[in-house]
Amino acid sequence: MTDDAADAFQHRTVLSDGSVYRVVPVGAGVRAIRAWAEHPWPMSPAQALALRDRLGWTSSPTDEEMFTTDHGIGEKDAFFATIKRGQTVGSFNMSLTSRIPKPVRAEAVPIAGKAFDAYVEALTAIYGQGTRSKRKQHTTVTWALPSDASVDIGTVGWLISIDVTSPAGNEAARGEAQYFAEIADENDPAR
């Protein structure tokens, strides 16, 4: 079965203004997510670039940490960010939908909703039940992996994106959250 046959949504939809809305097929997207999330950590920038090459993606001519994948989106749709003064990869982000003009975005929302649900179902089958959160139109599901890396898929309107955060990135985020909680506690007038 192909990725297209397995998905209950359109991968390529021509919208009323003639623009094309693209969604990465679930099989292709999940393979890429797993390649990044399940890579041994810590990951150096050189290892991230080697993974990019293994996946057949192309770096931006101006920033090698930004990629155009082979997912048919047709634009720079993925990047990684480093921490610890550029010594280790802190996170990886990939768009699962293409950009489209503002006047036709509402047309793509139902497609994005079906695609998001299909991705959550596929990732749940691999990583177990994730933690779902919703704020206004923004929905996310997060999976904490045994390595302490995490996978987060989010949607708002017509956009769907994935974030893989490294164990070091999650450790830094926890430290930052603790710092701000302590500051708030110290500044609490009720104390």
SSE layout and pairings?
Elements: H1 3-6, E1 12-14, E2 20-22, H2 26-37, H3 45-55, E3 58-59, E4 66-68, E5 78-83, E6 88-95, H4 105-127, E7 131-135, E8 138-144, E9 150-156, E10 159-165, H5 167-186
Antiparallel strand pairs: 1-2, 3-4, 4-5, 5-6, 6-10, 7-8, 8-9, 9-10
Span from first to last CA? Answer: 62 Å
**What is the strand content?**
25-35%
H/E series, N to C? HEEHHEEEEHEEEEH
User: Structural class from helices and strands?
Assistant: alpha+beta
Mean pLDDT: 90
**Annotation field: number of helices:** 5
Helix content: 25-40%
Low-confidence stretches: none
Question: Globular, elongated, flat, extended or rod-shaped: what is the shape?
Answer: globular
Task: Note the main attributes of this structure.
alpha+beta; 191 residues; 10 strands; two-stranded antiparallel ribbon; globular; eight-stranded antiparallel β-sheet
Would you kindly provide a written description of the structure presented here, covering whatever features stand out?
- With 191 residues, this protein is of the alpha+beta class.
- It is 37% helix and 27% strand.
- The strands form two sheets. Strands 3-4-5-6-10-9-8-7 form an eight-stranded antiparallel sheet.
- Strand 3 and strand 4 form a beta hairpin.
- The longest helix has 23 residues, at 105-127.
- The model has no long low-confidence stretch (mean pLDDT 90).
